Amino acid sequence: MIKVNDGFSLLPESYLFAEVGRRVADFRSEHPDKEIIRMDIGDVSLPMFPVVTEAMLGAVADLADSRTFRGYGPEQGWDFLREAIARHDYKGRGLDIDSDEIFVSDGAKSDLGNLYDIMAPDIRVAVPSPGYPVYADAGIMDGHYGTLSYLCCGASSGFRMPEPSRGFDVVYICSPCNPTGLAMTREELSAWVRAAADMNFMIIFDSAYEAYVRTPDAVRSIYEITGAEKVAVEVRSFSKTAGFTGVRCGYTVVPKALKGVYADGSEVSLNSLWRRRQSTKFNGASYISQRGAAALYTEQGQTCVREATDLYIENARMLRDALSGIGFSVFGGEDSPYVWAGAGNGESSWELFDRLLDRCMVTSTPGSGFGSDGEGYLRLTGFNTAELTREAARRIRTQF
Ligand code: MLT
Fold first, then answer.
1. Ligand 1 atom with the shortest distance to the CA of 179
2. Pocket probe mutation, ligand 1, options 15, 17, 206, max atoms within 8 Å of Cβ
3. For residue 342, which of 316, 311, 368, 317 has the smallest C-alpha distance?
4. What angle in degrees, to the nearest 10, is found between the helix axes of 50-63 and 299-325?
5. Best residue for ligand 1 mutational test, from 40, 41, 137 (most atoms within 8 Å of Cβ)
6. For the chain, first and last CA: distance in Å?
7. Any ligand 1 atom below 6 A from CB of 342
């Protein structure tokens, strides 16, 4: 028998959303007559935007014609997409990010986990609790279990990030936060960027939900904060903004100014390390997905993103109202499709999950699955249709 990675023995048996899916499937087979409304995994309900469909059909036609056929693409992503991203998401907003600092991928989740590949084996990583489970699970799989720590962002601090502190070399920060739906203010994030420079740590900034930011003081990119290009990587996704959960496409920004050191003290650019990592283990997102993603940067594409995110925020509002109407403490749902809610009566997250499913036939994600500081809370998503969200809100108000 071969020796296996001990890290796996420290992980819960299933990935959080796989476990939720299994329990929902069990409930469905026990109650085939009940109409379940899914509000657990953050999967979108709107179909692909017409402007994206058209671009992807054009890409398929390119691949079907010997004159326009393309095989392997550039490892960092096609220029047409990286340039559109740099122009629209950064330079157009006054942020100095070049297209050679952008790495197109098959989504934020892979990049968030794969970034461990460029870290030293003994690096100390801090992850928020509650936080997206990939940050901790991927670190544990990669052997960082002895040096992983959790930053409490629990109920006592209103689920906000704590003040920056020492004791780690890399920290994952997510804003708007998955799972709590709260967006960091400029002041809060500035304090983290300053601390990263002063205390010598790196920030992995997960901004997969930036398109949901509506509060004027909340930041969309960490590079809005002066000096962030020297201390932070930013990870983004088209999944939740443009319905790419099945298509798969996202990107990571690794600024050229961001440096690391080898054990012998020699300096190296993280941009070049990430390029080396990606070109070795990844062959790029498909040409078809990248053409689809580029269409999002047209005027029509931007209108569709705005309309879709507005709709999901409105759904989140319905859930917020219903949950606060029955006396839950409710967070998020204003700069995010996620609503985070707790009964405050000592019921555990899984007990709340079961009660919501049994009484209302509404699924959710138990907050404890995002870390022990999420215990007693549930995450619901605004990603379902407006009609089913209205029905879920009605059931919560009348049956929970
Ligand atoms: C979520 O629902 O938070 C995630 O996007 C699901 C995932 O891990 O892929």
1. 3
2. 17
3. 368
4. 130
5. 41
6. 50
7. no
**Is there a contact between 165 and 188 (Cβ–Cβ < 8 Å)?**
no
Query: Do 383 and 239 contact (CB within 8 A), yes or no?
Result: no
Ligand 1 center to 40 CA (angstroms): 9
The pLDDT tens digits for 90-124 are: 999 999 999 999 999 999 999 999 999 999 999 99
* Residue 109 CB less than 6 A away from ligand 1: yes
Q: The whole model's pTM is what?
A: 0.97
141 CB near ligand 1 (under 6 Å): no
For ligand 1, whether the C-beta of 369 sits within 6 Å is no
Nearest CA to ligand 1 atom 5: 42
| Cβ of 17 below 6 Å from ligand 1 | yes
Going by their DSSP bridges, the two strands 329-332 and 338-342 should be labelled as antiparallel
Question: In sequence order, what are the beta bridge partners of 329?
Answer: 342
Tokens 């939740």 -> residue: 240
**Cβ count near 189 (within 10 Å):** 24
pLDDT digits (tens, 9 = 90+) for 134-181: 999 999 999 999 999 999 999 999 999 999 999 999 999 999 999 999
Tell me whether residue 249 is exposed, middle or buried, using C-beta atoms within 10 angstroms of its C-beta: 0 to 12, 13 to 18, 19 or more. Answer: buried
Q: At 259, give phi and psi (nearest 5°).
A: -120, 155
Do residues 178 and 332 lie in contact, with contact meaning Cβ atoms separated by under 8 Å? no
- Pocket lining: 42 vs ligand 1, CB cutoff 6 Å: yes
Residue with tokens 């003994």: 122
CB of 207 closer than 6 angstroms to any ligand 1 atom: no
Q: How far is CA 171 from CA 126, 168, 174, in A?
A: 5, 7, 10
